[in-house]
Each structure stands twice: as structure tokens, then as C-alpha cells.
Amino acid sequence: MIRTIRNEILAKIEDRASFLEYLIKEYPRLLEEWTEKTDKEFEEEAKEEADGDYEVYSSIYNSFLSAFDDIENREDMFYKAMLLMTYSYYEGALSYFCKNKQKDDLVDIICKTNHFELSEQARDAKFSLQSDIRIVRNQLTHNNIQAKGNKEALNRICKEWAEIHISNGEITITGDDFILDALKKETLILKELCEKLGYKHKKIGYK
């Protein structure tokens, strides 16, 4: 019998990435369920207040719906939150490998300290994180579009990703592709670091 003993650090990275991916992909279903539940609550409340008068019921119910019909803003709020969460997952995981508190490139520090290089695929992912994902994340948290090169970079990102929009310095996100791509690249880098640093799952036993 063969058993897998999961390495604690690698397991944390895999499990957190899996949870984030599940949450992002399940959002449309969760939104639909919440919308249906809230609509039923509106109906019940309107019926109670109308006391059998259909016109009063209709007026109350429609007034609830007018304030409720805000799906686009809810989507934007969710996707922004998920982008920040995925980047926090990445930065937090890097701290497993490096306790450096400076604002230097932690991945480079880890590689130099341990005398190895990332694969070409991981280097490309790292470049994308720095040139695209980090810029969008920083704009969301710091509104630093006036920083050198940021405006041009954000405009380029908006052209490359149909779900990323910017107007007067404010970003809106209307889909999950950009975020899932970020999560995939972050996890690729983190798992490669685990591999090179010896954080691996082990199989024990016999067939």
C-alpha cells in the first residue's frame, strides 16, 4: 500500500490556490442563488406591507428591485476583491521561503540565496506578474496611475484583456480570466520554488 505524505508548505500552496480557483469559478452560481434568495425576501416583505393591496405590493416590490438591480457593481466588487486575494496569497506564500522584509524582488532573492534559476516558463510568469498583474493590483490599492509608466501600462493591459477597464484612474473588472491567469502563474512559480527547495510530497509504502 502506497501512502502520500504531504509536505506542509507545498500543501498550503496547493490547497489555497485550489480554494481561490473554486471560489472565483463558482461566483456566477453563488450570485444567482443569492439573487433568488433576496428576491423572495423582497416579495415576502412587500406582501406583508401591502396587506393584500396589489398596487401597493407592486409599488413596494419594484422599489426594492430598483435599488437591488446592481449586478455589474457587485461583479466588479467581487473580482477586485479576488484579484487582491490572489496576489496576497502569492506574497504570503513567498514569505515561507524568504523572511526578507525589504521591498526587493523576493523571488530573485530566493533564487540567488539558494543558487538556482527559474525555468523559462516560470520566468515568463514572473515577468507577467510584474508587468501586468502587480500594476493592476497597485492601481486598485494605491491609485498610482500617475507613477512613471503606469498609465501606458494600464492602457496596454486594457487592450489585451477585454474585462479590464479604466476610466479616470478607476479600474473595473468584468470577468474572471485575468484573475485566473494571475492565480495560475503565481501557483506555477510557487510550486517550482517548492520543487527546487526540496518541499515535496513523499510516497511511502509498497505496491
Written description of the protein model:
The protein has 207 residues and is mostly helical. It has one domain (2-16, 71-205). 72% of the residues lie in helices and 8% in strands. A hairpin with a 2-residue loop joins β2 (164-167) and β3. It is flat.
Low-pLDDT residue intervals, each spanning 5 or more residues = none
Radius of gyration: 23 Å
Q: What is the number of helices?
A: 7
Strand order of the largest sheet: 1-4
Essential attributes:
207 residues, mainly alpha, two-stranded antiparallel sheet, two-stranded antiparallel ribbon, 7 helices, 4 strands, 8% strand, flat
Give a concise summary.
This protein has 207 residues and is mainly alpha-helical. It is 72% helix and 8% strand.
Which helices and strands occur, and which strands form pairs?
Layout: E1 2-5, H1 8-50, H2 54-68, H3 71-97, H4 106-114, H5 120-142, H6 150-160, E2 164-167, E3 170-173, H7 177-197, E4 202-205
Helix pairs in contact: 1-2, 1-3, 1-7, 3-5, 3-7, 5-6, 5-7
